[in-house]
Design brief:
The complex is a heterodimer. Chain A is an alpha+beta fold. Chain A is about 35% helix and about 15% strand. The two termini of chain A are about 30 Å apart. Classes of the chains: A alpha+beta, B alpha+beta.
């Protein structure tokens, strides 16, 4: 494509055709045409993790995917996790721990942890959570409460209640 | 910027040749970041995402492996390759973060040829052979000859890396990747990829390759020979480490000064060799 073109993809279960300019990323598409501003633009270069979404069931950096290369893909943003049982448990535990400060990193962390809970075979310990979240930066540096909440939520989610069907 | 989606290698090669300064894009985990930062503005991109079979990892009878250039780093990390080839999986496990590895490809990381990246030294240590396809046909080159300079490979502008081949690892071979980085998921300050072929505790052949210590992966015949036909003990390993230290020409950046990097080389070589040896002991 040379000019703006329609990209057909599924976002949070809805089949959409969104207009993307050349060089636009999936993050541009989500925050712009799709009006889903849960995914945050932090570094725009794949370092901070604030734009983490699920693409074809796997955690992805929305800022590192060309929109036009997402044709036919299945994208789930933090908005699409509304109703996901693992995300609900995580939300409860994060509120209990005070794991949200300015909140900018929170959507990316919720998506990344939901991916972890869905794929883990046993509840992750603090070290596993820290390793998994290595690519999600919290500039408020509130890591201790985030990790605490994630470990407690993982204990409740992994290997007990089934979350979304395995991809 | 035009974006093309060829479905065959031939089609991709034709598109690449037809558009001056066009680039290939696979996972895009480095390339899109460079586009976003304005470091790169190619008139055309040839996406390899829909090229049939390019994401396949094939295990041959006897232990050899062929992987398409678009195999993801996550797939390689989880492949559980045997013997010396474990060095590839260990390196892939330490590339950036899970979301990056899910889409970042092996071929992309090799073609970007960042001297601080994890996969280039590992593929040199595993003595991989790479297949490149261009308008005049296919050619094969060793991983050692592939890395030419900072961010520069032996690929011609109209060539595409399509596959990576690994011979069956020798009986008794082990591999390990030891990465020293300031924080989890960062580029290496210094990394060491090591493969050893052991026979009753004696090292018959070794390939020790440094990352982040030169314009590309750094391997020295003399250092590998220093380990050959020894029980890789303190003295032989120290000799290999000293030779590599002498040959290293690291850059200074926020991850460490050149002098600091040079200084930690022998210690990290020792840790990598020790990690590889430990696997051999665990096996026997």
């Amino acid at each position: 494509m040379t000019a703006a073109a329609g990209v057909g993809l599924t976002v949070n279960g809805d089949p959409l055709t969104l207009v993307a300019g050349p060089g636009a990323t999936l993050l541009d598409l989500l925050r712009g045409a799709a009006q889903l501003t849960g995914s945050k633009r932090g570094c725009n270069s794949g370092v901070c993790g604030a734009c983490t979404v699920l693409v074809d069931g796997r955690a992805a950096r929305a800022c590192l995917m060309l929109a036009a290369d997402c044709a036919g893909r299945d994208v789930v943003t933090v908005e699409g996790l509304d109703g996901d049982p693992n995300a609900a448990v995580l939300g409860e535990e994060m509120a209990k721990s005070g794991a949200v400060q300015c909140g900018y990193c929170t959507p990316g962390i919720v998506v990344a942890l939901t991916d972890l809970f869905r794929s883990a075979v046993e509840p992750p310990d603090a070290e596993a959570v820290r390793h998994w979240l290595g690519g999600n930066i919290c500039r408020c540096t509130g890591y201790v409460s985030i990790v605490e909440a994630a470990v407690r939520a993982g204990g409740r989610c992994v290997g007990s209640e089934p979350g979304l069907p395995a991809q | 910027m035009q974006l093309f989606h060829p479905t065959t290698i031939d089609e991709a090669v034709t598109l690449l040749a037809a558009h001056e300064e066009a680039r290939c894009i696979a996972g895009g985990q480095t390339l899109v970041a460079m586009l976003n930062l304005g470091l790169l503005d190619p008139p055309a991109l040839v996406s390899l995402r829909k090229v049939e079979g390019l994401d396949r990892l094939v295990r041959h009878a006897g232990g050899g492996v062929t992987m398409g250039a678009a195999v993801t780093q996550a797939a390689l990390a989880a492949a559980g390759l045997p013997g010396a080839l474990a060095v590839l999986c260990e390196a892939a496990q330490q590339v950036a973060h899970p979301a990056i590895r899910n889409f970042g490809t092996v071929g992309g990381a090799l073609c970007h040829a960042d001297p601080a990246a994890d996969l280039p030294p590992a593929f040199v240590a595993a003595d991989a052979r790479l297949t490149a396809v261009g308008p005049t046909g296919e050619r094969s080159l060793s991983a050692g000859d592939f890395f030419v300079d900072y961010l520069t490979t032996a690929l011609a502008e109209d060539e595409i890396l399509t596959a990576i081949h690994l011979l069956p690892p020798p009986t008794g071979s082990v591999g390990a990747y030891y990465k020293f980085a300031r924080v989890d998921g960062d580029y290496a300050t210094v990394s060491v990829a090591a493969t050893l072929t052991l026979e009753g505790g004696v090292c018959r052949a070794a390939r020790i390759v440094l990352g982040s210590c030169a314009a590309g992966p750094l391997r020295l015949d003399a250092a590998d020979e220093a380990l050959a036909d020894t029980r890789p003990d303190g003295k032989a390993v120290a000799r290999a480490g000293a030779l590599l230290q002498e040959a290293a020409e690291p850059l200074a950046d926020m991850r460490g000064s050149a002098e600091y990097r040079r200084r930690i080389i022998p210690g990290l070589v020792a840790r990598a060799v020790e990690a590889a040896m430990a696997k051999s002991e665990a096996r026997s």
